[in-house]
């Protein structure tokens, strides 16, 4: 499980260096990014974060894609509870959430990434079959091939056992393509031997 940045690119390095199959190399970004999005939603709605179901796709960076179309609070679609303007602000804040923390703390986050990694370790070691947003190697899923990106993944004893495909809106698909291009740019500067 990769936790270091640039996360998506480091997954490529780990896969190449280890020779492991795609199921055995995963990255931790999605759980962390999603928890930030859920936190901002809870703050905005005044409701418990335990009631929020959300996911963030794409690269671990400013081009991540909070999937508003699949976000609910207590089973109610987010756009029925919050105005589009406020949703857009939460989405943008999620995208730059890591940078916001660095400014506040003077260093990178450590507790939240640790908690996110612990969820993933539990899911794998305890064979929980949990669907969590994680960085996984895509082989055509979401129209993306040969690239590590954040997607919902079923995690169990076999590692990243399945990439779960969400139905995305046209705007979300477009944002995911932008995220893909950004991740490919970072990966392209790596030389893995």
* CATH superfamily label: Lactate dehydrogenase/glycoside hydrolase, family 4, C-terminal
> How far apart are the termini?
20 Å
Average pLDDT score: 92
Element pattern in H and E:
HHEEEEEHHHEEEH
List the topology elements.
Blueprint: H1 7-18, H2 29-45, E1 52-53, E2 56-57, E3 65-66, E4 72-73, E5 76-77, H3 84-95, H4 97-105, H5 111-125, E6 130-139, E7 145-156, E8 159-163, H6 170-188
Antiparallel strand pairs: 1-4, 2-3, 4-5, 6-7, 7-8
Helix pairs in contact: 1-6, 2-3, 2-5
Can you offer a commentary on this structure?
With 193 residues, this protein is an alpha+beta fold. The protein has one domain: Lactate dehydrogenase/glycoside hydrolase, family 4, C-terminal (L-2-Hydroxyisocaproate Dehydrogenase, Chain A, domain 2, Alpha-Beta Complex), CATH 3.90.110. 44% of the residues lie in helices and 19% in strands. The two termini are 20 Å apart. The mean pLDDT is 92.
Précis, in short:
The chain is of the alpha+beta class and 193 residues long.
Provide tags for this entry.
44% helix; L-2-Hydroxyisocaproate Dehydrogenase, Chain A, domain 2
């Amino acid at each position: 499980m990769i936790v270091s940045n640039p996360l998506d690119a480091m997954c490529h390095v780990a896969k190449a260096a280890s020779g492991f199959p795609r199921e055995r190399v995963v990255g931790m970004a999605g759980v962390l990014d999603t928890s930030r999005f859920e936190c901002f939603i809870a703050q905005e709605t005044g409701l418990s974060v335990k009631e929020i179901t959300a996911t963030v796709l794409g690269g671990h960076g400013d081009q991540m894609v909070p999937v508003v179309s699949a976000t609910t609070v207590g089973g109610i679609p987010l756009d029925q509870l919050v105005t589009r303007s406020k949703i857009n602000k939460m989405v943008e804040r999620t995208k730059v959430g890591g940078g916001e923390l660095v400014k506040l703390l003077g260093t990178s986050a450590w507790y939240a990434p640790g908690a996110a990694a612990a969820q993933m370790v539990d899911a794998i070691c305890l064979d929980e079959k949990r669907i969590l947003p994680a960085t996984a190697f895509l082989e055509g899923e979401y129209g993306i091939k040969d690239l590590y990106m954040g997607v919902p993944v079923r995690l169990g004893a076999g590692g990243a056992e399945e990439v779960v495909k969400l139905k995305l809106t046209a705007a979300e698909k477009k944002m995911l393509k932008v995220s893909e291009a950004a991740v490919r740019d970072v990966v392209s500067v790596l030389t893995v031997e």
